[in-house]
Every structure is written in structure tokens, then in C-alpha cells.
Specification:
The structure holds two protein chains of two kinds. By secondary structure, chain A is α/β, with parallel strands linked by helices. Chain A is built from eleven helices and ten strands. Chain A has one domain: Rossmann fold. By secondary structure, chain B is mainly α. The chains are: A alpha/beta, B mainly alpha.
Chain lengths: 284, 455
């Protein structure tokens, strides 16, 4: 429980796992095998194999409707895969419920921000801490000292996370009243509160200006470097993708068409056709 | 803002239950005064001239127990955002389990103090059983299904007076087994008693024969309910409810088990109606299916909306206002209006005026009040701060933050109360119609502040 021992397992402590990406080598934090999602006759994700190395920053890219978010939603349990398996850190999480996936250690943000608008920033983060806390309904009523302490620690932890995200001053603002960039950051703070080891970011820089995008990109890298998180990004902004990802997977029409380092992907003909090609054609 | 949030440590130390109800000294003073007034009300009520719309002690009791029902429904509707149109169903379970355990119908006469525990447990279980099929439903669909339950359960008790169950030709239950007393209800139900001798006899009896005692019992239950609601709201569970209300998918993706959390909302919300069912059954010494109409569900929902969804103090005020108007104010005004209108109707030959009684227009009047409220003050009379912000945009954001971070630290509450206490202390007195008539005032806001001290 992170609230219980701040600094020991908590994300705030600079983790010694910095070099894990290299050290762990072939060991994957997440392995998806032949994952398929069918909506009626439409195959949104077509037997995709996908892996995320420990401590890595991996991107999932592809044109609109390529199946990226569908894939995300299968990992996080919002959709149940039609077939295939998803293994996270040795445990099969295929078809698990969203909250069970969170308990396993996967946190996420949403493409269209989904904060709890009428709750304050700190309450949003406290909700993220929910599953790390133990208080039951009757303990809420009786409030034994252990629960009061737990709540105090949760508050402390929530403030710490807001501080990390540069939202310390806004903790009592309603989430809906925060500026757009702050809302994006609050979503990340909320996801970090779940004490996740794998963080899924669904277009985190959508709608941000170039400066905000640059800051967020740096921040995402520091999350990995300082906190030892493994990160999966869905991103449209190619600058972001190429700048920070170690591996890029390209989806098009639900199929994986390429995978590799940013440079390899950039050079891949099918990718250029499917995705980058359009951009190039547009410019030319 | 820094003042509001800094001292986390304010929570530490021994829990002071009183502090939970009223944080600031000013609030505490008001609370004590109103409590004293409410406790004294049965004694000085007779002295109030009846040219004023004074609530009788029995009216006051009705106000108090509807406030508890409103608090219960508020958990489901206001906290968890699940629109429940069949809350009366749980009330039925509470009332009839009381009747079964403490009446001649099965010859059981269990002590009421035990019965109330059973009634709460039964109602909570009913909450889980009726809540479970609705878990996958959202919004309108949920409302329709709960509406169905709210109709089914009272129909059941109305018709389960001749139960015959045959399995393979063998009569297992029957012939004409009388489970619920049918339309006649169950009568008489034992009253709660305490073995305290005094001028009232060998033991103290809480029933309609002893309105003062019943009032105190009801007030005690209201204070208890408020206390429980407030702690639930400011807990891990309360935050989970609100997260589900705000965005169920996001809540699930943050690790909240939406199934158990929603079931807990149904169960805990229903348990308050079990409390009231046990109280009302004993207080009226009878239960009748007629007391559990669909209109009860709607009335309680109106109280919640009128007062301010999600706001504890608000829903209590909503219940008080609505019950006061329908039980006391309308009959009182009707006393002046009905006669002249009827004779006017007779003179002019207008049929519906000949039989005019103001009380009969109860729901019409509430309809108008509710419509006006939705236009001019959609957040309710005493809204939860967040909801005020939601409906009035950025303008009140700063205010809103004071309100919502009460769950963050009691220190925040204290601060808020010092600021808000002034307005709030005047608010309930100023808005409900109970205020203008001096005699109405001590009664009405009394119970409200009893519980309403903190936001």
C-alpha cells in the first residue's frame, strides 16, 4: 500500500529501476498474443501480437480507426477480447474486469479526458488511490484510528502526487474548472495514484500547444527514468512518438503492419503508405 | 485556499462525534439552542396560539422521519447518481418485517430494539436483491426498473393475504395463509418500550400515545442517520460513489469495483428506510399497504431534489419543507380558504369549487414549486457545493471548492462552516415557509439543525 509506506514502493521515490529496460532484456511486462476484437462483422483488432518490455516506452500508432483505442480498452478490461490472451507480469489478465486490471498494476488515461468533473483535483487523485486503501463501509461509519491514519496518509500521498504533476496549488479546484493542460496532468496524477507499474497514455498531448507537448514529453520520459514505470503511448503527434519511444508498433485497419525502433518504422514502406505517407502527400 | 487545506492533523486525536455534526462554535451554539427548542416543543407547543400554522408534535414526527427517508434516498440518488424511483419498496420491507416480528399476526413479540436491527438488515438485503438486477442499467433504464419494483412490492403486500402454494398437488403453504394482512394491513404492532419507571407508568412507551417520546426517538434516529451519512460521504466509499456518479467507466478504470460499490449504495440507502419502517410501524402501531404508494417514492425524491441532491443538510431541509407544507401549512390555510371557496362554488354553481379542499391540491402545488425551482434554482434549496458549481458554471467555482473539500479534511469543514455558517444558519430559517410563523420556526429548523449543523 503506497499510503502506508511513503517512499518505499511509492512512485515518488526515485526508483533504482532506471536501467531495467536494458537489464531485463527479453523479459516483457506485457505480452499480448493473437488478440482479436470483433464487433459483429467488423474486425477492429485482427490477431495482434504485442509486447512491452519492462521499463520501456512503447508507442502504438496508426491512422484514425486503426484499432488503437480498442486495443487499449482490451488491455484495461473495458472490452473483452474475442480471442487471444493478454499476460501482464506473468498473470493472465484476458477478460478481467477493469478494476481487476488496475489491481494487477495497469493505470490509464483517456483520449477524451474523463476526470470526475464535480470532484476536486485532490478527490480525483484520492479515487485513484481507492484500491490501495482498505476502509470498508462500517469502518467509514465507526472510523477506528487505523482508518483515520489511512485517510491521512492517502491525503498526504495525493498531495505528493499533485505536487509531482505541478498541481499542488489547484488541489481544491473542481476538476472541471481546471485549464485543459492541467486536466491532462491531473488524469496522469490520478492514474499514478493507482500505484501502477504499466501506465497507458491515450493521446496525452492531444489538444496541447507545442510547448505543453514538449514539457509533457519530457515528463513522460522522467516518469520512466525516475519512477521506473513502463509506458505505453497512443499518440498522433509523430514528434512525440519518435522523440521518446524505444519501440513503435503500427496498426492499420486492426492489423499490425510494422514494429521496431522509431527509425525502422519511419523507413517502413507500409507505414509510409498507411500513415506517414498521407502526411507526406499532404505536405507535397 | 492554503488555509483550508493545510492541517491534515486536525483529523487526528480522539474522534469527537459532536464535532462531526457541528464544527464551529457558532454552529454548536445554534445546534444546542435548536435541540433544546425541539426537545421542549411538546411542552410549549400548546402555548402557541393556534392562529399560527404550528405543526403538531405528530406533524413534527412525520417531518423527522421523512428526513431520514430522504437521507437514505440521497445516498442512492445524490451520492451514487443512481435514479431510484422505487425507494418505497425498501420502506415496505422495513415496515413489514417490524410487523411480522412484533404483532399478533404470527404471535411474535420481539423487543423493538432488536426488531429495528432486523428491519434495517432486511431492508438492506432487499436493497441488494433489488439492486442486483439493475447493475448493468444506467440512467433512464435504471429509473424504469426501480419504478417497477416500487410498484411490485406494495402490490405484493396488498395481495399476500391468501397465500396458497401447491407443489405436486400437496399444499405446502395454505389454505389461504395470511402473510401480510392484505389491504387491512397488520394491526396492532407493539410499541418500543424502555423499562424506565416514571410518571408515565412502569415503563416508557414510544408510540402515538406518547408523542413527545416518539419525537425524541425519531430525532435520535435522524441524528444517527445524519451522522452515518456524513461519515459515509467523507470516506473512501463516498468518494467511490461520487466517482461512479461522475463517470462510471473512468471509476472502474481507477480500480473501483462498480458492482459492489453500487450494491453498497442500494443496501446502505435502503437500510435507512428499514430504520424508518421500524419506527413508523411501531409509532402508528400498524402498517397498511396504502401507506406505501408510488407517491411516497416520488415525494421522497422531490424532497431530495428540492433540498439539493447530494447535500445532507439540503435533503433534510427539503423533507422538512415538503412535509411541513403538506401536513401543516396547507391544512392550516385550507381552514381559511376552503369554506369561502366552497360557498363561492355553491353560489356560482361551479362544480369543482363546491368540493374544494386545499389539501387535495397538494401535489399540484408541489408540481408548481418544483417547476419553479428547476427554473430558478435547479441546484435545490441548500445544494452541495459541487452541484451548485455544475449548474451555475465557473462563477461559483471558488465557493464550490470550500464545500467539496470537506471530505478532504475536517479543518476544511471548520473553515467552511465559519464562513458558510452565517449564511446557512439563516438560510434554512429564511427559505422554508416554516420560518414566518414564529411557532413553526422552533420546530422546523430545530430538527434540521440538529442534524444540519455541518454541511
Amino acid at each position: 500500500m503506497i499510503g502506508g509506506a511513503p517512499g518505499t514502493g511509492g512512485a515518488a521515490a526515485p526508483a533504482p529501476r532506471t536501467e531495467m529496460a536494458g537489464a531485463a532484456g527479453g523479459e516483457f511486462l506485457l505480452e499480448a498474443t493473437k488478440v482479436r476484437k470483433q464487433f459483429g462483422g467488423l474486425v477492429a483488432v485482427h490477431d495482434v501480437d504485442f509486447t512491452i518490455p519492462r521499463g520501456g516506452i512503447v508507442s502504438l500508432i496508426g491512422p484514425n480507426g486503426a484499432g488503437k483505442t480498442t486495443f487499449f480498452n482490451m488491455i484495461t478490461g473495458l472490452y473483452r477480447p474475442t480471442s487471444g490472451t493478454i499476460v501482464f507480469d506473468g498473470q493472465d489478465i484476458t477478460g478481467r474486469k477493469p478494476h481487476e486490471v488496475v489491481h494487477a498494476g495497469i493505470g490509464r488515461t483517456f483520449q477524451n479526458i474523463r476526470l470526475f468533473g464535480n470532484m476536486t483535483a485532490i478527490e480525483n487523485v484520492l479515487v485513484g488511490l481507492h484500491h490501495t486503501l482498505k476502509g470498508t463501509w462500517w469502518q467509514a461509519i465507526i472510523q477506528p484510528p487505523s482508518i483515520r491514519r489511512e485517510e491521512d496518509r492517502a491525503l498526504e500521498r495525493a498531495r505528493e502526487l499533485l505536487g509531482i504533476m505541478g498541481l499542488g496549488e489547484r488541489q481544491d479546484d473542481l476538476a472541471r474548472n481546471l485549464p485543459y493542460g492541467d486536466q491532462r496532468r491531473l488524469e496522469i496524477a490520478r492514474a499514478l495514484a493507482t500505484n501502477c507499474r504499466l501506465l497507458l497514455l491515450d493521446e496525452p498531448t492531444a489538444g496541447m500547444n507545442p510547448e505543453e507537448t514538449r514539457q509533457l514529453t519530457q515528463f513522460v520520459r522522467s516518469l520512466r527514468d525516475r519512477l521506473g514505470l513502463t509506458i505505453l503511448l497512443i499518440e498522433h503527434d509523430m514528434k512525440v512518438v519518435m522523440g521518446i519511444s524505444e519501440r513503435v508498433t503500427v496498426l492499420d485497419h486492426g492489423e499490425k503492419i510494422a514494429e521496431g525502433t522509431p527509425d525502422e518504422v519511419r523507413a517502413d514502406v507500409r507505414v509510409i503508405e498507411a500513415y506517414l505517407g498521407r502526411g507526406a502527400a499532404g505536405r507535397g | 485556499m492554503a488555509v483550508v487545506t493545510s492541517p491534515v492533523g486536525a483529523r487526528r486525536g480522539f474522534p469527537n462525534p459532536f464535532r462531526d455534526v457541528a464544527a464551529s462554535r457558532r454552529q454548536r451554539t445554534i445546534l444546542v439552542v435548536l435541540l433544546v427548542l425541539a426537545i421542549g416543543y411538546p411542552f410549549f407547543y400548546q402555548a402557541i396560539p393556534d392562529v399560527l400554522p404550528r405543526p403538531s408534535v405528530n406533524n413534527l414526527i412525520v417531518m423527522v422521519y421523512y428526513a431520514i427517508l430522504a437521507l437514505g434516498l440521497n445516498i442512492v440518488v445524490g451520492f451514487a447518481g443512481l435514479l431510484d424511483l422505487g425507494y418505497v419498496a425498501f420502506y415496505v420491507f422495513g415496515a413489514y418485517s417490524t410487523a411480522f416480528l412484533a404483532s399478533p399476526i404470527f404471535g411474535l413479540h420481539v423487543s423493538w430494539w432488536l426488531v429495528i436491527v432486523v428491519a434495517v438488515a432486511v431492508a438492506a438485503t432487499a436493497g441488494i436483491l433489488l439492486g442486483a438486477p439493475t447493475l448493468r442499467l444506467r440512467g433512464d433504464y435504471l429509473a424504469i426498473v426501480t419504478l417497477g419494483f416500487g410498484e411490485i412490492v406494495p402490490q405484493l403486500v396488498r395481495n399476500l393475504d391468501k397465500v396458497n402454494i401447491n407443489i405436486l398437488g400437496v399444499q405446502v403453504i395454505g389454505p389461504d395463509f395470511n402473510l401480510t394482512g392484505g389491504p387491512l394491513g397488520i394491526n396492532p404492532i407493539d410499541a418500543p418500550t424502555l423499562p424506565i419507571p416514571g410518571p408515565w407508568g412502569r415503563e416508557l412507551v414510544f408510540s402515538n400515545g406518547n408523542p413527545a417520546g416518539s419525537l425524541y426517538l425519531a430525532m435520535g434516529l435522524l441524528v444517527l442517520s445524519f451522522f452515518v451519512c456524513r461519515r459515509l460521504r467523507d470516506s473512501r466509499l463516498g468518494r467511490a460513489w461520487m466517482a461512479i456518479r461522475e463517470d462510471e467507466t473512468a471509476a472502474a478504470s481507477m480500480g473501483i469495483n462498480t458492482v459492489t460499490t453500487k450494491l453498497l449504495a442500494f443496501a446502505l440507502g435502503a437500510s435507512f428506510s428499514g430504520l424508518v419502517g421500524a419506527f413508523v410501524g411501531a409509532y402508528q402501531t400498524a402498517v397498511f399497504p396504502e401507506s406505501f404508494n408510488f407517491s411516497v417514492s416520488i415525494s421522497i425524491l422531490i424532497m431530495v431534489i428540492l433540498g439539493g441532491m447530494g447535500s445532507l443538510r439540503g435533503v433534510i431541509v427539503g423533507a422538512f419543507v415538503m412535509t411541513y407544507v403538506s401536513q401543516t401549512l396547507l391544512p392550516f390555510l385550507g381552514g381559511f380558504i376552503d369554506g369561502p371557496v366552497q360557498s363561492f362554488g355553491k353560489q356560482t354553481g361551479v362544480g369543482f369549487l363546491e368540493n374544494f379542499t386545499l389539501v387535495a391540491y397538494n401535489f399540484l402545488i408541489f408540481g408548481v414549486i418544483l417547476a419553479l425551482l428547476m427554473i430558478f434554482r435547479p441546484e435545490g434549496l441548500l445544494p452541495a457545493a459541487a452541484r451548485k458549481a455544475e449548474l451555475h458554471g465557473e462563477g461559483v467555482a471558488a465557493e464550490a471548492t470550500f464545500g467539496t473539500d470537506t471530505s478532504v479534511a475536517d479543518a476544511a469543514t471548520e473553515f467552511e462552516e465559519q464562513i458558510g455558517g452565517i449564511a446557512e444558519a439563516e438560510g434554512p430559517g429564511a427559505s422554508p415557509p416554516g420560518a414566518p410563523g414564529a411557532p413553526g420556526a422552533p420546530g422546523a429548523p430545530a430538527g434540521e439543525e440538529t442534524a444540519g449543523g455541518a454541511s
